[in-house]
């Protein structure tokens, strides 16, 4: 195992980490890199903040089906307007 | 300054989530909120000739939405609306002020849906709006709807490394946008 990973690789692991999709070794690798690299530490901090904001916001969205229904309803109305 | 034009075909994709999040803290009911958003779009379609292009499309839609939300409360406080509220008082002593208790209260926000969270939510949605279309879609699917990587890759016919590149770009743009629009 290479001890010191590249910044681009670290950024990639860091992104995945936001979605909890990294394994144990990747995590160690990232932590090690962060210890030594100021730029990546900064990126990681901002990334975590974004994740936290997204979590706090708890955004709700229309499901795809609900969107489709809504679109159909609008399309019908547009058609009616054209006809009249 | 170029004046804004309306683009109804894109309304659902571009604004449905924003309007929904605006509504849900005010009516606290999923179905009612969706109905209000849908009515807003229909009303906007009928009124689209009145759009003067002075405001952005979203601002204009929000102004219609606000009126729809007020209408909703007006209706649920009207006699007709109250007739639809089911009354569960059995105890004759408790009849007191049931009308007021059963009409929805617009100022009743739960702790999770505090005003600050709402502002944060709308700030995030505004930032997502500024991403390129495909990036925005994939970012939303991955981050907000929490689809797994595989599902999204299949749907968009991309490889996982493509997906992570898109997510990386989206996140970077989101960080910058949020740092500008949202001060902690």
Question: How would you describe the overall organization of this protein?
Answer:
The complex is a heterodimer of chains A (84) and B (184). Chain A is mainly alpha-helical. Chain A is rod-shaped and about 70 Å long. The longest helix of chain A has 20 residues. Chain A is built from four helices and no strands. The model of chain A has no long low-confidence stretch (mean pLDDT 89). Chain B is mainly alpha-helical and 184 residues long. Chain B folds into two domains: 108 residues, Orthogonal Bundle (Rna Polymerase Sigma Factor, Chain: A); 71 residues, Winged helix-like DNA-binding domain superfamily/Winged helix DNA-binding domain (Arc Repressor Mutant, subunit A, Orthogonal Bundle), CATH 1.10.10.10. In chain B, 67% of the residues lie in helices and 0% in strands. Chain B has nine helices and no strands. Chain B is globular and about 60 Å long. Chains A and B meet through α1, α3 and α4 of A and α1, α2, α6, α7 and α9 of B.
Proper CATH architecture of the largest domain in chain B: Orthogonal Bundle
Q: Please tally the β strands of chain A and state the result.
A: 0
CATH fold node name of the largest domain in chain B: Rna Polymerase Sigma Factor, Chain: A
Rg of chain B: 20 Å
Strand percent estimate of chain A: under 5%
> Helix- and strand-based class of chain A?
mainly alpha
Question: Which class of the largest domain in chain B in CATH terms?
Answer: Mainly Alpha
Query: What is the element string of chain B, with H for helices and E for strands?
Result: HHHHHHHHH
Euclidean distance between termini CA atoms of chain B: 32 Å
Q: The biggest beta sheet of chain B, please?
A: none
Our count of helices of chain A gives 4
Query: Residue share in helices of chain B?
Result: 55-70%
Termini distance of chain A?
71 Å
User: Helix content range of the residues of chain A, please?
Assistant: over 70%
Enumerate the spans of chain B where pLDDT stays under 50 for 5 or more consecutive residues. Answer: none
Weakly predicted, low-confidence segments of chain A: none
How many E-type strands of chain B? 0
Q: How much of the polypeptide of chain B forms β-strand, as a percent range?
A: under 5%
């Amino acid at each position: 195992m290479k001890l010191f990973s590249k910044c681009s690789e670290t950024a990639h692991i860091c992104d995945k980490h936001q979605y909890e999709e990294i394994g144990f070794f990747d995590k160690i690798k990232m932590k090690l890199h962060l210890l030594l690299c100021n730029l990546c530490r900064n990126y990681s901090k901002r990334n975590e903040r974004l994740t936290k904001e997204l979590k706090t916001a708890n955004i709700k969205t229309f499901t795809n089906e609900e969107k489709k229904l809504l679109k159909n309803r609008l399309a019908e109305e547009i058609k009616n307007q054209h006809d009249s | 300054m170029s004046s804004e034009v309306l683009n109804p075909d894109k309304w659902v994709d571009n604004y449905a989530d924003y309007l929904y999040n605006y509504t849900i803290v005010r009516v606290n009911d999923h179905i009612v909120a969706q109905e209000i958003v849908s009515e807003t779009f229909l009303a906007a379609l009928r009124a689209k000739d009145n759009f003067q292009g002075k405001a952005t499309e979203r601002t204009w839609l929000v102004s219609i939405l606000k009126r729809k939300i007020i209408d909703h409360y007006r209706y649920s406080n009207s006699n007709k609306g109250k007739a639809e509220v089911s009354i569960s008082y059995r105890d004759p002593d408790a009849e007191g002020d049931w009308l007021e208790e059963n009409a929805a209260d617009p100022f009743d926000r739960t702790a999770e849906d505090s005003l600050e969270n709402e502002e944060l939510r709308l700030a995030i949605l505004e930032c997502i709006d500024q991403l390129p279309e495909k990036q925005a879609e994939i970012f939303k699917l991955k981050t907000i709807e929490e689809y797994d990587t595989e599902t999204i890759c299949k749907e968009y016919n991309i490889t996982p490394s493509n997906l992570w590149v898109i997510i990386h770009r989206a996140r970077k743009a989101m960080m910058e946008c949020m740092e500008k629009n949202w001060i902690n």
